[in-house]
Design brief:
The chain has one domain. About 70% of the residues lie in helices and about 0% in strands. It is built from 12 helices and 2 strands, in the order ααααααβαβααααα. The chain is globular. Its main location: membrane. It holds the Pfam family Fung_rhodopsin. It comes from Aspergillus calidoustus.
């Protein structure tokens, strides 16, 4: 399947803008609609990327719904680094341009940016799951559910660490990964081992998305006292962020094409779907906090704004 370099660049830039807009709306809900801000919000503003709390205090389950994935400033920062590294690599260093002749300096820099983006993606993917898990801990009391979350986090920490180290130390010396185009001397491990490690990590990501976004929230909502219609709505919105799992599946399909032998553009499709996966997760989770803003914009028959959380 052919991917137009121009289309890849445009999609990545558009997603970056949408992510920033989504985060800005979360901040507006927190500061402009609710009217309070905490110390972590100041830190987030300084970092220019932060998601915010949109309170709808009707039940603990709904509280989880609006809080879900709030505490992800590092994920936002890492996503920005990931997308920017991909944009720069595409625009200037031959990534996403199969067959394009680039200088050895451009090829080396492009591969270095790809490696940086890979580490950022792996770290961000784990941090977002940690954030969701800690949010779940606020409402999950059943020991089997909590043990499931702990197990997912432990396995994820191990797999993420292994994958990051394996990717970073794939070649010996480390700089041979990108400096081989400059004539550096060294060697790299088998690409099949890296592919296998990435596939296991991606499988964990997929399982975590479904478990933390759909299964455990569904079990919690099942035992809540909300009416059925509200349960279904909240469960659907809780699972909305799990749409990122679609991008994870597509990325897994392309993992067998991974290579380290030819040009900086060889793995750009995998990198692109990594960027898409991260962006979809952020945007969908941010959308879950916009309800107070929508409620404020909606008018009751008397012309006054409906109460937040109504």
């Amino acid at each position: 399947m052919a991917y137009s370099p121009t289309a890849c660049l445009v999609v990545t830039i558009v997603l970056q803008v949408l992510v920033l807009v989504a985060i800005a709306l979360r901040l507006y809900v927190r500061v402009g609609v609710k009217g309070n801000i905490a110390a972590d919000d100041y830190m987030a503003v300084l970092a220019t990327v932060r998601s915010n709390r949109a309170p709808i205090p009707t039940s603990s389950a709904v509280y989880f719904f609006v809080l879900g994935a709030n505490t992800r400033p590092y994920f936002k920062i890492l996503y920005t680094g990931l997308s920017l590294s991909y944009i720069i690599a595409m625009a200037n260093y031959g990534v996403a341009h199969p067959g394009l002749r680039v200088s050895s300096e451009q090829a080396a820099t492009g591969l270095l940016l790809v490696l940086i983006g890979e580490i950022l993606y792996l770290t961000a993917t784990y941090l977002v799951k940690v954030s969701i898990a800690f949010t779940l801990f606020r409402i999950v009391t059943a020991k089997p559910h909590r043990y499931t979350i702990y197990t997912l986090l432990l396995i994820g920490a191990i797999l993420t660490t292994i994958t990051c180290f394996w990717a970073f130390f794939l070649c010996s010396p480390v700089n041979y990964f990108w400096d081989r185009f400059r004539g550096a001397v060294g060697s790299c491990k088998s690409i099949r081992t890296l592919m296998a490690v990435h596939f296991v990590q991606a499988s964990w990501t997929l399982i975590s998305d479904l478990t933390l976004g759909l299964v455990i929230p569904g079990l919690v909502l099942w035992d809540s006292l909300m009416e059925r219609r509200t349960k279904i709505l909240v469960w659907f919105l809780l699972g909305f962020g799990s749409l990122a799992a679609i991008a994870t599946i597509v990325r897994m399909i392309y993992l067998p094409t991974m290579t380290i032998t030819n040009s900086p553009a060889d793995n750009h499709i995998i990198v692109l779907w990594s960027v898409l996966e991260a962006a979809i997760g952020i945007i969908c989770s941010a959308a879950a906090t916009w309800r107070p803003l929508v409620s404020r914009l909606r008018r009751s028959p008397t012309g006054s704004c409906e109460p937040l959380g109504s």
